[in-house]
Amino acid sequence: MEPFRKRLRQWLTLVGLSAVLLLAGCSREQYVVLDPKGPVAKQQYDLIVWSFGLMLIIVLAVFGIFAYVIIKYRAKPENKGYEPPDQEGSKLLETIWTLIPVAVVIALAIPTVKATYGLEKQPSSDRPPMTIKVTSADWKWIFRYPKEGIETVNYVTIPADTPVRFEMDAVGPMNSFWVPSLGGQEYTMPGMVMNLWLQADQPGVYQGRSANFSGKYFTHMTFDVIAKSPADYDKWVQQVKKTAPKQTEAQYLQLLERGLAKKMTFSSYPKIADQAGLIGEVKGIREKMNRPEEPDTGTMHHHHHAH
Amino acid sequence: MGFHLPKNFLVTGEPMIVVAEVLSVLTLAGIVFALTYYKKWKWLWDEWLTTVDHKKIGIMYIISSLLMLFRGGIDGLLMRTQLALPNLHVLDAEHYNQIFTAHGTIMIFFMAMPFIFGLMNVAVPLQIGARDVAYPYLNALSFWLFFFGCMLFNISFMIGGAPDAGWTNYTPLAGSDLAPGPGINYYLLSLQISGIGSLMTGINFLVTILKMRAPGMTLMRMPMFTWSVLITSIIIIFAFPVLTVALALLTIDRLFGSHFFTVSGGGEPMMWANLFWIWGHPEVYIVVLPAFGIFSEVISTFARKRLFGYSAMVYSMVVISAVSFLTWVHHFFTMGAGPAVNSFFSVSTMAIAIPTGVKVFNWLFTLYKGRIEFTTPMLWAVGFIPTFLIGGLTGVMLAVAPADYQYHNSYFLISHFHYALVGGAVFGCLAGLYYWWPKMFGFKLDERQGKWAFWLFNIGFNLCFFPQYFVGLMGMTRRMYTYPEGLGWTPYNLISTVGAYMMGVGFIIMVYNILYSIRHGERDLTGDIWNGRTLEWSISSPAPHYNFARIPEVDDLDAWWHMKKRKRKQPWELRPLKPIHMPNNSGRPFIMSAWFFVAGFGLVFEWHWMGIIGLLGVLYCMLKRSFEYDDHHYIQVDEIERTESAAGRA
Ligand code: HEM
Ligand SMILES: [Cu+2]
Ligand SMILES: [Cu+2]
């Protein structure tokens, strides 16, 4: 970036941020969206600030003109006989105020498109990426760690400074997976896999919640993202494997039924868990389990279920 | 088939609902009693239920929408009460979900749209020098379909249970699997019925404006409100069929077990979101473009200046209407359409800001060098500019797809669309209401009270919705029925609730303003109480049944303004009066819509036999209409003369 644009950006950041904080008079940490804790959120935050700065310029300019005309040209006893001129318009002026928004849109569109493509890519880090599978169900979040073979419910532990690819699907309604401190949201949908890259720069606990209405207890669909140092993360995985119970198919199915759940930890999960989100409906999952000999995708292996 | 009365047919569990039920029954009984006691049934039937007069239909639309603004406003206040402080229990989750669904649906379909339709009906034929709309009978049918659709939706919380999947009604949440029972059926069928009415209104006004303009009124001499209605009609004609199809597909899914939107049968839940918003984004412009038109009229009238940049105003609306069909994906940037699609829809959405910006500057330059009188309609119009600016610019922020991943479904979004919908559409409707009120009723609404209402509503509005931008950035999502302490959300929510109550007080003052002015309002004896510019101000107030005794001839924009300037009579004003051809009243639009209601009610409870009976009723009405030949009459010259001289214009 040329120095001028960089300076402009810094300046806008400063103005934008202080305006927001001044108006709000609150501590920055509570503005989770404005207090990014990872590269994805940071990228989005930069765009927010940039767009806010541009909009602020327009607001100030238009409010200025607005105040001027309604004060200066209001009807007063002094201008009683004044007959306003009938102006048809002005090609020059109208061209100017067509071009100003065009310029603003261009200034906004370029970084927008860049970031839209950029966010599809893995955030850069020295550490290798990992994958966590997420299934939303009524009204809880189920996290599977395919490499580690473990499962957690309503919280997810990740190594800090590591790009994490969340592979998301849903049983039942759509939800939206949102951890504002780490980055923007993505929908979870039945029958469809969605990807979302997130990364926490520092160890810490970050609040996540569903952002898309999914019925009665949607409000309570919150979860914690616990970022640990890579070493602590490995320790945690070992501990889960040693101490947490295995998850049976019956338990898994029970979890999919409508209702709330506490935080839970399992040292394993049943195979059906990998298909649940693709089938997308509890009814369909139950049917599938009663007819394991009828593989329809070829991806499902034969297995024996609990009863 | 069959007749299964659901367990909770009359909803009883909730005390608040029971109170509402009792009040509804009492109100209904009160109305029936009053009509009987004052022997007004015949008057009601002859003057209103069977009317095909666009002005009366307009008034009925407006009364209905004010009632729905009240109902939807109460819903809003209930939600704000529940959210005033953390962990409150005014409403439980289920009830809250029903209320925000009702609020959103009612405000959009049964408040904003009919309000706009009402003002269109009142003003457009008068602005173009016509004696009615192109299809008066169809117009009555449109209104009654809206009315019965609205009634069907409104009884849901008392009979059978209200829908609770949001006004967006996303599948699979709204599918029969996750939402069994009548609730969602109410949503689908009531919107279907009123939607047919909306589509017909679009067709009616398109034809009216294209075919019924007074001689000399070329397209580029039309008043800006009429232009906005023309463009809106085109949007309606393209957008509403999509909604019709979406509603029909989901109805078939729910009632007959098909799988358009369910994964199991190979359906696609996301298709609902697509269809809904292909209609839904243009819908925003259906309610906001006519508001733009109203602002243009009001601003130019009270700045005493011709609208600045008339042709740019027209072209910008044309561009907005076209681009509005190319932005729908911005409602779900986070459904993983991929970077190419998101980039396209990001930029197309931002592009709408360009023609909109042109309009804002043209309004500002209409004010520039004017002599601005701050009457009540003008206050709403002037108040619109900063409010809508904030709504529009936060809209541009939302259009930045990667940033939207953070705003989507949060209170930032709630604030944005209330700034656009209230600051745009509602301010516009209220500006139009105060502006055309004298034309509808022959007297003015009291200015002092009107200004009080404006300031309370406006300040309350900003108090209510401005803090929501912040609480959105703090991570509060829409449709949460409660929230915990300690997140910093409480002060914002509390201020927001206080603002909401202020708006409520503003609304009550407005109602008082109307009741007070019926007796004490300044009578409009000239027909041109605001010193207006367009043809509706050239006739007496309230406008006579036939509108124009002689069809005017137009040779410029702001036709009436120029006629006033000229003073000398034009040849057409001296022509002899001729008998006027008018359509007959008819009770059939009302009866036919009632049959639609019967069919809808039956299908809500999946009593297919009742659905069939209702549809047979509809069919019978259509048949009867097809064989009706004697459906018009003439107003004779002596009657016109009598009416005109009674209004002091012999
Ligand atoms: C009387 C002033 C109003 C108040 C106090 C108010 C308040 C609210 C509240 C509290 C919500 C729900 C937020 C949530 O839990 O998600 C909401 C949603 C909504 N409002 Fe309003 N509102 C008002 C006026 C309007 C108007 C005039 C319109 C439209 C013209 C409107 C359209 C909507 C829509 C479409 C929703 C979304 C509903 C949904 O999530 O399904 N509101 N409003
Ligand atoms: Cu999908
Ligand atoms: Cu939109």
Automatic annotation (TrEMBL), chain A:
Domain Cytochrome oxidase subunit II transmembrane region profile: start-end pairs: 25-123
Compartments, as annotated in UniProt: Cell membrane
SUPFAM superfamilies in UniProt: Cupredoxins, Cytochrome c oxidase subunit II-like, transmembrane region
Membrane topology: Multi-pass membrane protein
InterPro entries the record matches: CcO_II (IPR045187), CcO_II-like_C (IPR002429), Cupredoxin (IPR008972), CuRO_UO_II (IPR034227), Cyt_c_oxidase_su2 (IPR014222), Cyt_c_oxidase_su2_TM_dom (IPR011759), Cyt_c_oxidase_su2_TM_sf (IPR036257), Cyt_o_ubiquinol_oxidase_su2 (IPR006333)
UniProt keywords, alphabetically: Cell membrane, Copper, Electron transport, Membrane, Metal-binding, Oxidoreductase, Respiratory chain, Signal, Transmembrane, Transmembrane helix, Transport
Leading EC class: oxidoreductase
Protein name as catalogued: Quinol oxidase subunit 2
UniProtKB/TrEMBL annotation, chain B:
Cofactors demanded by this protein: ferriheme a; Cu cation
Domain of life: Bacteria
PROSITE patterns: COX1, COX1_CUB
A Pfam family of this chain: COX1
Catalytic activity: 2 a quinol + O2 = 2 a quinone + 2 H2O; 4 Fe(II)-[cytochrome c] + O2 + 8 H(+)(in) = 4 Fe(III)-[cytochrome c] + 2 H2O + 4 H(+)(out)
Chain segments annotated as transmembrane: 16-38, 59-79, 99-124, 136-159, 186-207, 227-252, 272-295, 307-329, 341-365, 377-401, 413-437, 452-471, 491-515, 594-620
SUPFAM superfamilies given in the database record: Cytochrome c oxidase subunit I-like
Enzyme class, broadest EC rank: translocase
EC number annotated for this UniProt entry: 7.1.1.9
Cell membrane in keyword set: yes
Gene3D superfamilies, per database record: 1.10.287.70, Cytochrome c oxidase-like, subunit I domain
Protein family (similarity comment): Belongs to the heme-copper respiratory oxidase family.
Protein role: Cytochrome c oxidase is the component of the respiratory chain that catalyzes the reduction of oxygen to water. Subunits 1-3 form the functional core of the enzyme complex. CO I is the catalytic subunit of the enzyme. Electrons originating in cytochrome c are transferred via the copper A center of subunit 2 and heme A of subunit 1 to the bimetallic center formed by heme A3 and copper B.
Protein's name in the database: Cytochrome c oxidase subunit 1
Provenance organism: Polycladomyces zharkentensis
Source organism phylogeny: Bacteria, Bacillati, Bacillota, Bacilli, Bacillales
